Amino acid sequence: MVMEKKRVCVTGAGGFVASWIVKLLLSKGYIVHGTVRDPSDEKNAHLNKLERARGNLKLFKANLLDYDSLLSAMVGCAGVVHVACPVPTTTPANPEVEMLEPAVRGTLNILKACSEAKVKRLVYISSTAAVIFDPKWPEDRAKDETCWSDKEFCRATENWYLLGKTEAESIALEYGKQNGLDVVAINPGTVFGPVMQPILNWSTLLLVNFVKGEYIQIEPVDARDVADAVLLAYEKPEAKGRYICVGHNIMIKDLAEKLKILYPDFSYLENFGEDDHEYWVSSEKLQKELGWTYRPLEETLVDSIESYKEAGLL
Ligand SMILES: NC(=O)c1ccc[n+]([C@@H]2O[C@H](COP(=O)([O-])OP(=O)(O)OC[C@H]3O[C@@H](n4cnc5c(N)ncnc54)[C@H](OP(=O)(O)O)[C@@H]3O)[C@@H](O)[C@H]2O)c1
Questions:
Q1: Integer distance in angstroms from the first to the last C-alpha of the chain?
Q2: Dihedral through CA 194, CA 26, CA 243, CA 225, nearest 10?
Q3: How far is the CA of 124 from the centre of ligand 1 (A)?
Q4: Ligand 1 center from residue 17 Cα (angstroms)
Q5: Please, which residues have CB within 8 angstroms of residue 289's CB and are 6 or more apart in sequence?
Q6: What is the pTM of this model?
Q7: Where do the domains of the chain lie?
Q8: On the chain, which terminus has fewer CB atoms closer than 10 Å, C or N?
Q9: At what angle do helices 202-210 and 252-262 cross, to 10 degrees?
Q10: pLDDT digits (tens, 9 = 90+) for 177-201
Q11: Atom of ligand 1 nearest to the CA of 87
């Protein structure tokens, strides 16, 4: 197959964040190779209903731990957006195997397959999880792209998701430098927004639980704005390194106040205690270097809640 600039592989295509990336790429005229673990599973059915999907979206059965399956999906693609990673809503019985392995070994497989398939640019979806957990970072300074989560701290506190994302992102950026693969990382905060997929993903569950009175800690960003950031990171030749992608720094009590005005009938926590603080993370690099913009938080909240109601989640 001849490599085409506008042919891109998106891993874990049926997930919450990836579905918005696939939708945006299709709308911009791309041909998308989406990897899913089971193309016949109903949970991926929404992908084939996307506008322009017919003839432009091809689903490939692939697992992060199966190198050949990943390589087959990438053949002919100029770019890869690596999104797939376990983000469980409860800690699995064996997190090192069920979370770390696919996150880290899976990313290594992606990197090697990109080299073999002669992919030009890989956009790796990391997370602020790979940024914010540095206990030595000064409290009065916003965290930027120079801040990395401390892997020893993550391991000691058994934060397996954080550890996996930190390890995988650092491996991806380093591999890019050593092997001449153009790797750009996007580090989203907590991703809200309307749901397309029928499965309740981790961050959607957070907001659903919040309006039912649970405590959460977040740095919100809209999935549609994350998709925009991915497109910028893919298309802009000057994109380099990592980019924090967070729309809003907000205290949880302020989030509750905003939601109470929009939806007074939900039950919210009354007291947020001493743990409530603003996560000062800065997306200035993404805005200044790549021209990223993001929508108002109210729009994200309303569109999210309305889509949860429509899907019967609330
Ligand atoms: N949601 C957030 O707030 C947030 C914030 C920052 C970063 N992120 C990152 O964004 C990405 C997507 O998150 P999401 O919230 O959209 O999660 P999601 O809806 O749970 O999607 C995760 C995807 O990963 C796939 N996957 C998991 N293990 C796999 C494996 N071994 N082989 C192949 N595919 C595998 C899943 O495929 P199946 O459908 O087959 O299970 C699913 O498509 C992740 O990399 C996550 O770290 C998310």
A1: 46
A2: -30
A3: 12
A4: 8
A5: 236, 238, 239, 243
A6: 0.97
A7: 4-191+220-248+278-295
A8: N
A9: 70
A10: 999 999 999 999 999 999 999 989 9
A11: 20
Q: Is the CB of 280 under 6 A from ligand 1?
A: no
What pairing do the DSSP bridges indicate for beta strands 220-222 and 190-192? parallel
**Atom number of ligand 1 nearest to Cα 191:** 3
Residue 136, Cβ density class (10 Å: 0-12 exposed, 13-18 middle, ≥19 buried)? exposed
Q: Which atom of ligand 1 is nearest to the CA of 18?
A: 16
Residue 43 Cα to ligand 1 midpoint, Å, equals 13
For ligand 1, whether the C-beta of 64 sits within 6 Å is yes
Q: Architecture of domain 4-191+220-248+278-295 in CATH?
A: 3-Layer(aba) Sandwich (3.40)
What radius of gyration, in Å, describes the C-alpha atoms of the chain? 19
Closest CA to 289 of 246, 241, 222: 241
pLDDT at 1: 60
How far apart are the CA of 260 and the centre of ligand 1, in A? 30
By annotation, the residues acting in catalysis are 165
Q: Answer yes or no: is the C-beta of 168 below 6 A from any ligand 1 atom.
A: no
Structure-token pair, residue 280: 């000062």
- DSSP character at residue 120: S
C-alpha to C-alpha distance for 128 and 189, rounded to whole angstroms: 5
Is residue 202 lining ligand 1, measured as CB closer than 6 Å? yes
SS3 125: strand
The secondary structure of 131-154 as a DSSP string is TS--TTS-TTS-B-TT----HHHH
Q: Confidence class of residue 70 from pLDDT cuts 50, 70 and 90? A: very high
Q: What is the DSSP letter of 281?
A: B
pLDDT band, residue 119 (cuts 50/70/90):
very high
Question: Tokens representing 93?
Answer: 């019985």
